[in-house]
Amino acid sequence: MKKKVADMILIMGIGMTELIMDIDTSIAVFNSIEYSKVDKKVWLHMFAGVDLDLSYDFDDLDDIDQMAVYVALASILYN
Fold first, then answer.
1. Residue 73 to residue 78: CA distance in whole angstroms
2. Which helix (H) or strand (E) holds 70?
3. pLDDT tens across 14-65, in order?
4. For the chain, what are the domain ranges?
5. Residue 62: φ, ψ to 5°
6. Dihedral of the alpha carbons of 29, 30, 31, 35, in degrees to the nearest 10
7. Torsion over CA: 9, 27, 79, 32 (sign)
8. Which of 16, 51, 62, 69 has the fewest Cβ atoms within 10 Å of its own Cβ atom?
9. Among 79, 54, 18, which residue's Cα sits nearest to residue 5?
């Protein structure tokens, strides 16, 4: 699932590795999603205030939340 999500980020970003969009999961509403090519990781970011960026590893999400992220990206990419 992570490979598919990473590919969608790279396609939608047109060269950029981070997308700014709200993604609703059971944990929280994340404000951006990023693919790190160096670490081969997908990070979800939540911005709180001006100076706080909380990061969450996509691999730590349960299967339902990973599917929610995939569906959120796919609903934009494939429309």
1. 9
2. helix 63-77
3. 989 999 999 999 999 999 999 999 999 999 999 987 788 899 999 999 999 9
4. 2-77
5. -75, 175
6. -160
7. negative
8. 51
9. 18
- What is each CA distance from 38 to 26, 35, 54, in whole angstroms? 28, 9, 20
Q: Tokens 């939340």 correspond to what residue? A: 65
Closest to 64 (Cα-Cα) out of 18, 7, 33, 24: 24
Q: What is the DSSP letter of 68?
A: H
- Measured CA angle at 41 (ends 16, 58), to 5 deg: 105
DSSP lists the bridge partners of residue 43 as 34, 57
Instruction: Show the CA angle centred on residue 57, arms to residues 54 and 62, nearest 5°.
Output: 115
Q: Tally helices (H) and strands (E) across the chain.
A: 2, 4
